[in-house]
Write a structure and sequence with these properties.
The chain has 141 residues and is α+β, with helices and mostly antiparallel strands. It has 2 domains: 45 residues, no CATH class; 70 residues. It has 4 helices and 4 strands, in the order H-E-E-E-E-H-H-H. The chain has a 4-stranded antiparallel sheet with strand order 1-2-3-4, with helices on one face. Helix 2 packs antiparallel against helix 3. The structure holds zinc ion.
Length: 141
């Protein structure tokens, strides 16, 4: 994960500013660079392009956690289908054990993902002005 401000990133920030984009106080959850609002209202990271608007650290870490978990979910799904494919050739309890342990992981991942999205929804209720890229598109600033 790149954290430093590489010359390339600086150049892109300069290009964005030249194009009339506004530098925001929010930062990219992936690299920590400041985000920019384009004239179209779209919010972009100079390195990663289009990103979520992140208001605070907890939201930033939630987005990071979620993307890691989603990656893990894909990995588990892939491993499960691998086990199933090999199941015909292998016999005995090892296949069942392997399936059980992958399903355990999957269950945990989904429970955490569920927890994260539930807490995001609850905070959304007290926080109706939370910036969202889909909403901010309509706001002229
Ligand atoms: Zn970034």
């Amino acid at each position: 994960m790149e954290r430093g401000r590489s010359p390339e990133a600086i150049k892109r920030m300069a290009d964005l500013l030249r194009a009339g984009a506004a530098m925001l106080s929010e930062r990219c959850p992936a690299c920590g660079l400041p985000l920019f609002r384009l004239r179209s209202g779209e919010v972009v990271c100079p390195v990663h392009g289009r990103v979520y608007i992140v208001r605070d650290e907890s939201e930033a870490s939630r987005i990071t956690v979620r993307s890691v978990l989603e990656e893990l979910e894909r990995f588990v799904a892939h491993s499960l289908s691998d086990v199933v494919r090999r199941a015909g050739a292998t016999s005995g309890n090892s296949v069942a054990d392997e399936l059980r342990s992958w399903l355990d992981v999957l269950e945990r991942v989904e429970r955490i993902l569920d927890m994260i999205s539930t807490s995001a929804r609850e905070e959304g209720l007290d926080d109706s002005d939370k910036p969202r890229s889909s909403q901010s598109r309509n706001q002229a600033s």
